[in-house]
Amino acid sequence: MLQRAKLNPPFCALPLLQFRIPAGFPSPADDYKEKSLDINDYLVRNKASTYFFRVVGDSMTGAHIHDGDMLVVDRSIKPKHGHIVLAVINNEYTVKRLYSCNGVIELHAANPAYPPIRFRENEELQVWGVVVGTFARFIV
């Protein structure tokens, strides 16, 4: 489902802590509050060209993109080798890592169960946008 980023999203400032959180034991973190973090500012750099897409499938799990996650895609970024991109192939959207080497363009999954998508001379690839982030809910 395609959703445009809101031009004037509601401000949602949450506390940002200045140290990394260990995953092993709890820590009293209130003494380390640094500033607020607005998730919109963190994930959306160009509001007019940013869209959200929900992921379906498991081809990008090696890049920490899972079924049900929400992608943040920016159309204003020029795609480069190694970027994760939202591509359109034969009128179907897919998310893959862009590989461009010596004039050869491929799209690679981040799951070894999926082969690379290779393009021949007359085939057309449209890179719709560059994935700049993702977010997921653990509890629905």
UniProtKB/TrEMBL annotation:
<keyword id="KW-0234">DNA repair</keyword>
<dbReference type="GO" id="GO:0006355">
    <property type="term" value="P:regulation of DNA-templated transcription"/>
</dbReference>
<keyword id="KW-0068">Autocatalytic cleavage</keyword>
<dbReference type="GO" id="GO:0016787">
    <property type="term" value="F:hydrolase activity"/>
</dbReference>
<keyword id="KW-0378">Hydrolase</keyword>
<keyword id="KW-0742">SOS response</keyword>
<comment type="similarity">
    <text>Belongs to the peptidase S24 family.</text>
</comment>
<dbReference type="InterPro" id="IPR050077">
    <property type="entry name" value="LexA_repressor"/>
</dbReference>
<protein>
    <recommendedName>
        <fullName>Peptidase S24/S26A/S26B/S26C domain-containing protein</fullName>
    </recommendedName>
</protein>
<dbReference type="InterPro" id="IPR015927">
    <property type="entry name" value="Peptidase_S24_S26A/B/C"/>
</dbReference>
<dbReference type="InterPro" id="IPR039418">
    <property type="entry name" value="LexA-like"/>
</dbReference>
<dbReference type="InterPro" id="IPR036286">
    <property type="entry name" value="LexA/Signal_pep-like_sf"/>
</dbReference>
<dbReference type="GO" id="GO:0003677">
    <property type="term" value="F:DNA binding"/>
</dbReference>
<feature type="domain" description="Peptidase S24/S26A/S26B/S26C">
    <location>
        <begin position="15"/>
        <end position="132"/>
    </location>
</feature>
<dbReference type="GO" id="GO:0009432">
    <property type="term" value="P:SOS response"/>
</dbReference>
<dbReference type="GO" id="GO:0006281">
    <property type="term" value="P:DNA repair"/>
</dbReference>
<keyword id="KW-0227">DNA damage</keyword>
<dbReference type="InterPro" id="IPR006197">
    <property type="entry name" value="Peptidase_S24_LexA"/>
</dbReference>
<dbReference type="Pfam" id="PF00717">
    <property type="entry name" value="Peptidase_S24"/>
</dbReference>
